[in-house]
Give the backbone structure.
Amino acid sequence: MAELFDDYRTSYQDVVADSISFSGLKHDFFMQAKADLIERRLRSEGYLAPEMKRHALDIGCGIGTMHPYIRDLFSNVDGCDVSAESIERARRDNPNVGYRAYSGKQLPYPDESFDFAMTVCVVHHVPPPEWPCFFSEMRRILRPGALACVIEHNPLNPVTRLAVLRCPFDEDAVLLRSSTTRRLLAAAGFTSISHEFFCLLPSAGRVARRVERTMSNFPVGAQYACFARA
């Protein structure tokens, strides 16, 4: 897996853009949708109070594509990935984020180091036998009561399946239903687990987002997010 994403360190965004080009939407649309959802949930949880210094970790961060969208939400942001080449590019593109490459087994951080952890469209690249370890590690590095966010493709959405089929580095992807992700979170010791589907409408307008939220419990959006407490 590390070698695969090393190879795509310079072309990752172009490959993703090509895989979704049939939709008429740009990669930025999906990144902003994720960031907006994360910010909305953090605000609802009281995580963004000015006096709070929150430390966030992005597990499987790749080239750091998400970080310009979320960096200002936290006092510190770290990212880690199995692709050392991707981490090098992330460092160049996002000098205000801390990055580490790691083996993919144990996260390179002490227990209870972070207030928030996210992993965005990563778990479907992890071999299924390693899913329990992945979620246990995510739980280990979070402080008690900290918030976790797992964003994944919705395998019940046919447009999502087409995009995955068109993406060369998704050839071996094993898509997880939201119920599977929630079960893995629970098995790892997370509590207060919730989920919502998003990216249903091809618009970032306020009305479209509001309509999406009324349908967030139905498995029709292109992606879903699971939130849980450590």
